């Protein structure tokens, strides 16, 4: 259109004919707050007392020809403004529709009704409708009617509203054209009018979205009217109804509209057909989707507004409360009449010592005792006990864990200073996940048996501050189907037992040793189904890799190693992985692996990550062992460079991505980058990060330097990331 007409692009829509539009990340909000305030100012009602409802419940209006007649011109002017306000205020549609019927000859009672409407408008000027992003694309309609409500001619009122997702897109409150002889007939006529709107919306949305036509669900709260739609046997009851109202039958038979029953309490079109009492009106207004989003804590009549949360089903409320720490869940429940006992049926129990002083630990212990005593659910999903800052009695901890076992716990997360495991836990048949972090393990208190039987346990995460052979390894031996194991040993002992992992079901292993004073002879891995392996910490032992035939990903991060032999023996057992991450310590050159021709070939590795104190000059020699490498990530802390004589095979045919990250850049980094760019023939992306470059001039200078380097790949893109800006350099 811009090619044929003179146009200006004003950006996204924010205002259109009195309608304010706010386009946010989570959706679009429309309101007429400014227009509503202008109406109040023009009518002199800006300082009036606000009302909670637009029309009093039970009041009926008629022509009232015996009352004093008002100025029709002024009356129609105000009515026109109020009717335009209905574009964002469906909750006022019925009230405005009622007073609109008397524009030809308005009377004093009609003027009082308009003033009541304006008083309600004063109370709700900031109300708006929100259209959420990525919501449901389902079209649902609600149809309702009020029978024989008009005092003058006995005609009923039709009301319907349609939702696209969770927000209303069209609504109507209108007097029916003919008199209905029964409430069933009035509902049937209203449903037929709603069906006409549904068919039009169905075709319109299909045209706008380009998606196939979908059946529209129409919800009616009258079972007799639904029967008239679905069953044509009721001829004697329907023969007097005009034929055009049977349109809904054809829509139903053709599969365009489906009619469902809904209770009157949930009929969202009810607010469009009658004047409701204050509490009922407020509930229906929220169901309709009209809210004061700028003030969610607004009070109505001195009482807190009914929140959307309080209207959720009980099972959803229970799930929300179960996500809270138990002390907050109990407080939230007891302060609510509806949720008073909800905390007793939650799926999760969380106890922690956050903001609990050592002087209050007795109160904390009594609180846990009371919760477990009054808990009603027969099964608990998660029992979490984190009290590492309190010196709780071992008998209390053991009693709490025993209580969780009696509740058929599925997941147990324990972090305490002193741990005593009850006998019931060691044979629990419902436990699937166990996490233990303890400083002192009291075997004598819990009577730790030699035989442990946890038949359903699949995940075990243990942080050991005591002898692991007296606790952790006994637990591991009693888990026949364990799939994920994390063992973090922080023991200061000097035992020389071997770490033997002979677990055929294990798929993920994380092994950490954080104390260098603890010596072990060797680590034996016989885990044929292992897929992910992480080894970290301080090791002076030999790794014996017997069977890791299913291993896909391995990560090695040593804090200290005894010799190159330990490192090389471990790498030889990992030659079948696809992804490898290696980090070496900073204890001098003697502690760094010597890349000799005897280094094993990794024929399957496609992704390699190198961290720690690697020299840049070591990288090309290292890459000779990875012929299929595609993605390389380097984070070196040593900077030295010697131009290699040969180019690794992977750089000629496979390597497509290089990520080079350093905290502080050195001039010797540039020759390394030049070498990579000049020899990687299929390289597509090189991402370079220098964190300490704070000046944009320095970053621009480096970009200019990189641009001068020759590139072997024609389609290589260089991404430069500094701490203040980013650059991309294309070929």
What descriptors fit this protein?
alpha/beta; 28% helix; 731 residues; five-stranded antiparallel sheet; 16-stranded mixed sheet; 25% strand; Nucleotidyltransferase, domain 5; 20 helices; 31 strands
Descriptive overview:
With 731 residues, the protein is an alpha/beta fold. Among the domains are: 114 residues, no CATH class; 157 residues, Nucleotidyltransferase, domain 5; 33 residues, no CATH class; 126 residues, no CATH class. The strands form 5 sheets. A 16-stranded mixed beta sheet has the order 13-14-15-16-17-18-20-22-24-25-26-27-28-29-30-31. It has a 5-stranded antiparallel beta sheet with strand order 1-2-3-4-10. The longest helix is centred in the N-terminal third of the chain and has 27 residues. About 4% of the residues have low confidence.
TL;DR?
The chain is of the alpha/beta class. 28% of the residues lie in helices and 25% in strands.
Number of helices: 20
Outline type: extended
Q: In which order are the strands of the major sheet placed?
A: 13-14-15-16-17-18-20-22-24-25-26-27-28-29-30-31
DSSP strand count: 31
Layout: helices, strands, pairs:
Blueprint: E1 15-16, E2 19-24, E3 27-31, H1 33-42, H2 72-85, H3 93-100, H4 108-123, E4 128-132, E5 139-146, E6 157-164, E7 167-175, H5 183-209, E8 216-220, H6 223-230, H7 235-238, H8 247-253, E9 257-261, H9 278-288, E10 290-291, E11 299-300, E12 303-304, H10 314-322, H11 326-334, E13 348-352, H12 361-374, E14 382-387, H13 394-406, E15 411-419, E16 433-441, H14 443-446, E17 459-464, H15 472-477, E18 484-489, E19 499-502, E20 508-513, E21 522-526, E22 532-539, E23 542-547, E24 553-561, H16 564-572, E25 579-584, E26 607-615, H17 618-623, E27 631-638, H18 649-653, E28 657-662, H19 669-679, E29 685-690, H20 696-708, E30 717-721, E31 726-729
Parallel strand pairs: 5-8, 8-9, 13-14, 14-15, 15-16, 16-17, 17-18, 18-20, 19-21, 20-22, 21-23, 22-24, 24-25, 25-26, 26-27, 27-28, 28-29, 29-30
Antiparallel strand pairs: 1-2, 2-3, 3-4, 4-10, 5-6, 6-7, 11-12, 30-31
Helix pairs in contact: 2-3, 5-6, 5-8, 12-13
């Amino acid at each position: 259109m811009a090619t044929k007409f003179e146009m200006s692009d004003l950006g996204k829509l924010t205002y259109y004919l009195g309608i304010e539009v706010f386009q946010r990340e989570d959706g679009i909000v429309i309101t007429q707050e400014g227009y509503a305030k202008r109406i109040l100012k023009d009518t002199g009602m800006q300082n009036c007392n606000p009302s909670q409802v637009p029309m009093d419940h039970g009041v009926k209006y008629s022509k009232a020809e015996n009352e004093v007649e008002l100025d029709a011109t002024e009356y129609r002017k105000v009515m026109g403004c109020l009717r335009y306000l209905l574009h964002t205020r469906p909750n006022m549609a019925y009230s405005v529709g009622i007073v609109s019927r008397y524009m030809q000859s308005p009377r004093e009672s009609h003027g009082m009704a308009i003033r009541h409407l304006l008083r309600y408008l004063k109370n709700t000027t900031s109300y708006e409708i929100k259209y959420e992003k990525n919501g449901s694309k389902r079209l649902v309609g609600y149809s309702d009617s009020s029978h024989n409500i008009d005092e003058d001619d006995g005609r009923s009122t039709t009301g319907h509203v349609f939702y696209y997702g969770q927000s209303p897109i069209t609504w109507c409150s209108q007097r029916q054209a003919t008199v209905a002889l029964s409430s069933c007939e009035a509902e049937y006529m209203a449903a037929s009018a709603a069906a006409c709107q549904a068919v039009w919306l169905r075709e319109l949305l299909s045209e706008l979205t380009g998606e196939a036509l979908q059946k529209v669900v129409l919800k009616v709260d009258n079972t007799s009217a639904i029967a008239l739609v679905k069953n044509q046997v009721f001829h004697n009851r329907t023969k007097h109804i005009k034929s055009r109202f049977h349109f809904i039958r054809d829509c139903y038979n053709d599969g365009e509209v489906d009619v469902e029953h809904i209770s009157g309490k949930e009929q969202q079109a009810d607010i469009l057909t009658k004047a409701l009492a204050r509490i009922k009106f407020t509930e229906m207004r929220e169901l309709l989707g009209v809210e004061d989003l700028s003030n969610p804590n607004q009070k109505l009549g001195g009482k807190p507004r009914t929140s959307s949360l309080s209207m959720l089903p009980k099972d959803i409320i229970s799930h929300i409360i179960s996500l809270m720490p138990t002390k907050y869940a109990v407080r939230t429940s007891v302060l609510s009449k509806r949720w008073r006992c909800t905390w007793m049926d939650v799926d999760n129990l969380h106890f922690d010592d956050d903001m609990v002083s050592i002087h209050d630990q007795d109160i904390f212990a009594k609180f846990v005792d009371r919760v477990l005593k009054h808990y009603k659910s027969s099964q608990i999903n998660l029992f979490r006990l984190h009290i590492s800052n309190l010196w709780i009695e071992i008998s209390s901890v053991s009693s709490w864990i025993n209580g969780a076992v009696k509740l058929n716990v599925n997941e147990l997360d324990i972090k305490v200073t002193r741990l005593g495991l009850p006998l019931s836990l060691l044979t629990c048949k419902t436990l699937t996940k166990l996490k233990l972090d303890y400083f002192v393990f009291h075997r004598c208190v819990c009577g730790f048996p030699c035989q442990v039987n946890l038949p359903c346990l699949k995940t075990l995460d243990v942080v050991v501050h005591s002898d692991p052979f007296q606790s952790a390894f006994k637990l591991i031996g009693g888990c026949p189907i364990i799939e994920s194991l994390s063992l973090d040993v922080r023991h200061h002992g000097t035992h020389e037992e071997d770490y033997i992992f002979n677990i055929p079901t294990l798929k993920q292993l994380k092994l950490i040793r954080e104390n260098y004073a603890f010596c072990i002879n060797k680590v034996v891995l016989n885990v044929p189904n292992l897929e992910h392996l992480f080894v970290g910490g301080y090791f002076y032992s030999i790794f014996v890799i017997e069977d890791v035939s299913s291993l896909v990903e391995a990560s090695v991060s040593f804090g200290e190693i005894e010799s190159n032999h330990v490192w090389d023996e471990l790498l030889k057992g990992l030659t079948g992985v696809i992804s490898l991450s290696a980090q070496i310590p900073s204890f001098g050159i003697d502690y760094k692996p010597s890349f000799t021709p005897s280094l094993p070939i990794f024929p399957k590795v496609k992704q390699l990550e190198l961290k720690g104190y690697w020299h840049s000059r070591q990288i090309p020699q290292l890459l000779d062992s990875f012929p299929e490498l595609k993605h390389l990530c380097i984070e070196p802390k040593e900077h030295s460079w010697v131009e290699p004589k040969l180019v690794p095979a992977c750089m000629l045919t496979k390597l497509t991505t290089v990520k080079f990250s350093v905290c502080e850049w050195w001039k010797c980094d540039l020759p390394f980058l030049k070498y990579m760019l000049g020899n990687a023939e299929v390289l597509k992306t090189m991402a370079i990060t220098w964190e300490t470059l704070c000046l944009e001039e320095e970053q621009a200078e480096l970009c200019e330097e990189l641009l001068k380097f020759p590139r072997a790949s024609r389609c290589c893109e260089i991404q430069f990331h500094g701490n203040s800006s980013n650059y991309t350099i294309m070929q």
